[in-house]
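Dear colleague,

Thank you for sharing your sequence with our group. We've completed the structure prediction you requested, and as agreed, I am returning the results in plain text so they can be pasted directly into your records. Please verify that the sequence below matches your submission; if there's any discrepancy, let me know and we will rerun it promptly.
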Amino acid sequence: MSGTSTNAAFTGSIPENYDTYLGPILFEFSAADMARQVTAALERSARVLEVACGTGISTRHLAHALAPGSELVATDLNTAMLDHAARVNGDLPGVTYSQADALDLPFDDASFDAAVCPFGIMFFPDKAQGMREMSRILKPGGVLFLNVWDSFEHNPAVGVIDRVIKQVFDSNPPRFLEAPFGSVTEEQGRALFDGAGFTDPNITTISNARPMTDYGLPARGFITGNPTILEVEQRATIGVEDLIAAATAALEHEFGPAPATLRFQGTTFLGRKPE
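Please find the predicted structure tokens below.
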């Protein structure tokens, strides 16, 4: 994942919390969808680059889905995320990990059959440059897959937690969740593919209705599983556990007592580089 210094600071306990609390809610279903779409677009074993692999959930799904003999190079800007991914995934056939800036990929031109960027493009400080880099390393006819989260309107539980976070700060509240949720629309994604010279991408909506028996799990995940926690700890205007409790209560007020079903939605883009 590439981004500004704050949005890129997935350090300390963040990778573990991201994986533990957000993985089951957000990233397992979306990673399975990505693996299905990408492998369907590849007719044989392939060399694949993963940009912004995070804690390796998508890496794991891809590695199990790709044809035998494939190679998957999983990269991220954050070494803490890469280290976590390598540790929890163990030895996966054909998978290597490499630290890399998405805006300056350290790979040769036309050296990959496919590139995937799971929920990373939203954080790029220069999205067009990131698209150019992924296009550059693709062979003619190569596949590019991106996915993004839709707005708070389509991810209402995240919107509730975001409001709670902002309400407890008198000024300049943490705004991290605005970046992944709704900062790249379908129209903007289509324009990014067009600007990088790809053919018209296939665009789909993915969603997951997640049964929730404990609202404290998403509250803890969206507060401690990303750089929001760093701002909360630095300012010390509210205790982390108090903030999680407030978010938990707000979710119950909005959606009723648990168990309940929370819905999460994103958009996927799959394009092919011209021959």
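Summary note from our side: The longest strand covers residues 260-272.

Kind regards,
the structure core
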